[in-house]
Each structure stands twice: as C-alpha cells, then as structure tokens.
Amino acid sequence: MAEIVRMPKLSDTMTEGVVAAWHKKVGDEVESGELLAEIETDKATMEFESFQDGILLHIGVETGATAPVDSILCVLGEKGEDIKDILANDEQAALVTESEPVSPTPEAVAPLAPVASAPVPEMKPAVTPSPSNTTAPAPAAPNARVIASPLAKKLADKLGLTLDRIPGSGEGGRVVKRDVENFKMAGATGMPVLTQEKFTEVGVSQMRKTIARRLAESKFTAPHFYLSISVDMTNAMQARKAINDQGLYKVSFNDMVVKATAVALRKNPAVNSSWLEDRIRYNEHVNIGVAVAVEDGLLVPVVRFADGKSFATIGQEVRDFAGRAKAKTLQPADWEGSTFTISNLGMYGIENFTAIINPPDACILAIGGISNVPVVKNGEVVPGHVMKVTLSCDHRVVDGATGSAFLQDFKNLLENPVLMLV
Predict the structure, then answer these.
(1) pLDDT at residue 112 greater than cutoff 50
(2) Within a domain: residue 119?
(3) Shared domain check, 399 and 275
(4) End-to-end CA distance of the chain, in Å?
C-alpha cells in the first residue's frame, strides 16, 4: 500500500526545508535505509534515508524547491499503484488543518551551523533601462556608418579613438559625448564603466534566513551591553614563539585566546551561563563555540571542555572544525552545546568590534587584531603589542561587575601565559 513520506523536521528550529538533491527518480526501487534525498534545513544540508521499502511513485518537492515541514516529500508504494486518492485526501486534510487556529509554541534555540553542500541560487543580472533606450546597442561593425553627434566626433578625434568601437547610448544607437568619455575612462582603468543601472539579486538561503532571524531575535530581545579592554600581548607573543620553535606543533594566537577564555570562565562561572527564559543555567563545564566564516554565513563549532585542553589540542580541533566547515562536512554534534562564544576577526585586520550574542549563551567575546603601538611601562614609552577585545553581555544574566571580573582574569592570563599551564 502506498505511503506518504513527509518533509522531516531535521533540526529543532526547522520550519521548512529545501530539497538539495534527489538520489532516486520516479519509478526507482527504494530500500529501507537507502539514501533518498539531501535536504537543506536552516542549519545544514543533511542526508535523508528511507524508512520503508517500495517504488518511488511521486515526488512532491522538486530539486531546489522549498516546502514546509510535514508536507508531502514523496510517495512510496507498489509498482503501478494508483495514488490519486491518497494525494487528494492528504490535500483535503491539510486544508482542514490550516483552517484551525494553532497556538504558537516557543522555539528552541541552537547554534547555527549549515554544513553540507546546497544548491547555489542562479545569479541573474537585472538591468534597469534608461528612459530613451531599452537595450544597450553593440558597437558598430568596422565598415558600418556610425551615427554620432558633432561633439562626440570631435572628442573622439582629439583622443585618437575610433567611433565604430564605441557603443552609443543616444537615440537609435547614436554615439554622444558621454559615450566617448566613458569609453576613454574604461580604457584608462581597464574596467567597464556602466552607463545604465545594473544589479544582481539572489535568493536567500535557508542558512542566511536563520542567521537573519536568530540574530535579530538576539539583538532585539537580549539587552546587550559591552565591555572593552586592551591586552598587552608581548609575553603571549614570546611564549608562542618559544613553543613553535620547538617544532613539535604550531600554536596560534587564537589557540591561546580560546584557552585563556576557558580558564577565565572556570574562575567566573556566572559568565559561563545561559538564559532559558524562565531560569538561568550556570554551566560548570566549559564549551567554547568558535565562530568560523564560510561562504554562506557563519558556523559555530564547539571545543568541548576547553579549560582542560592544551594549546595544541585546542588548535588541532579548531583547524579540523574550520576545514570541515569549509568542506561542509560538519555534523550536528559539532555545533551543539556551547556555553560561551568567541568571534575573532583579528586575522582580517580588524582592530576592535562588537559581536551579537549567540543564544542561549549569555556572552560573546569579540577579538581584534594585535597592533604595534606605543605603551607606557615603568614610566617610559616603549613599543608594545596590544590586542583589544570586547565582551557583549546579556544584562538579564550578567552584570557589569561580573563581566569586568571575567575580562580582568582573561587579560591577566594572556599577559602571563604561564598561568594557563598551571
């Protein structure tokens, strides 16, 4: 007997899915446990396996199309089976359900992390035509008579340009003065100069939709406040060089930042907390979410129990996460369960910035680059290496004094790296 396979709810915040690819076509035999399709959720593109045997009789969502959770994904049954009635009955039931009021339910929050490959929206340039010209005429053929204004002819002659190479934007393709000027500018810069408005529009991916929704919720729901501090990285730089000179493994500044954050959180458990609407969770374990930039947005894989790990172990995990994030092979277990988040833009030359909290975490630490600036030591101005960091706090959970105590410990650990080894 034919059975409807519905769009699955593959993440706790998923409301609709996009079929990234079908691995079967109508008429193919499908076995239980066999890969049926790839579905893009708000967090990842995940493989969807069949839970029953049968022949694929109907595909309800074509490749690249979007459908809500529980809608008809496909129908499996026996070869030649008539499925018109089952589709009609399901459509009628859906109409009845939609007419009934449904009470909204609170949506669980989880870190973002789209993973596998998804169809890239086709980019189609759109051109706004000028009032007098709907399409830009092509350059005239070499032997064709070119229609041009006297000013255009005079300017082209002065600049040593051939009119038959210049596209005209005037009425009937007439070359006017501005066309000659634009053509000359394009030649000087090596880049085309547009004479018409032009833009490109692309569809919003499931990942970008989720980023927009969740960050807007965080920004406008959680009362953010910000605490900034400067860290003298001179000793950290010396320690990093000494470790790397051993040749056993390479340690980055980000590895040291993650470790310092984890140790400071262990000393300040109030910052290592989560807002859960009707209660606050103070986490005893330290799981650091490390924001990783990818093509479609941002992933936040989690370094678990980071306070008990060495620089080398943290570095190995973060590099592995970054590689798998860019290859889109992260799994849900890789991005769930953070208690605190770090966003580091120092490698992009950003000196300082503020980050939006990643709920349900109560805080996120924004890391800027290390700047070579004058500093005062022992009453003298000497060269220094300073890194600026900013802690974004949810004021419902963390107060100013609490956040400040954490930053002081974080600063002390990086300025005295040996303390992280104790």
Answers:
(1) no
(2) no
(3) yes
(4) 66
**CA–CA distance, 289 with 300 (Å, rounded to integer):** 5
List, as own/partner pairs, every contact residues 207-214 make where C-beta atoms lie below 8 angstroms and the sequence separation is at least 24, other chains included: 207/42, 207/43, 207/112, 207/114, 207/118, 207/296, 207/297, 208/296, 208/297, 209/42, 210/13, 210/42, 210/43, 210/112, 211/112, 211/297, 211/298, 214/13, 214/109, 214/112, 214/359
114 in a structural domain:
no
**Structure tokens given for 383:** 């060269």
Please tell me whether residues 272 and 307 are part of one structural domain. yes
* 3-state DSSP assignment of residue 85: helix
How far apart are alpha carbons 252 and 222 in whole angstroms?
Answer: 32
pLDDT (0 to 100) of residue 134: 40
* Number of domains observed in the structure of the chain: 3
What CATH number does the domain containing 19 carry? 2.40.50.100
Report the interhelical angle of 150-159 vs 177-189 (nearest 10°): 30
Q: Are residues 336 and 373 in the same domain?
A: yes
Active-site residue set? 395, 399
Model pTM score: 0.63
The pLDDT assigned to 13 comes to 73
**Segment 138-163, tens digit of pLDDT:** 455 544 567 888 888 888 888 888 88
Q: Half-sphere exposure of 154 toward its Cβ, with a 13 Å CA cutoff? A: 4
Q: At what angle do helices 234-245 and 253-267 cross, to 10 degrees?
A: 120
The yes-or-no verdict on residue 376 having pLDDT over 80 is: yes
pLDDT per residue as tens digits for the range 85-108 = 888 888 776 665 554 444 444 333
Nearest-angstrom CA–CA distance, 7 and 75: 11
Residue 125, pLDDT > 60, answer no
Same domain, residue pair 251 and 369: yes
Which DSSP string corresponds to 310-331? Answer: -HHHHHHHHHHHHHHHHTT---
pLDDT of 186 reads 65
Please state, in angstroms and rounded to a whole number, the distance separating the CA atoms of residues 403 and 400.
5
DSSP 421: G
In a domain, 113, yes or no: no
Adjacent-strand bridge partners of 382: 375
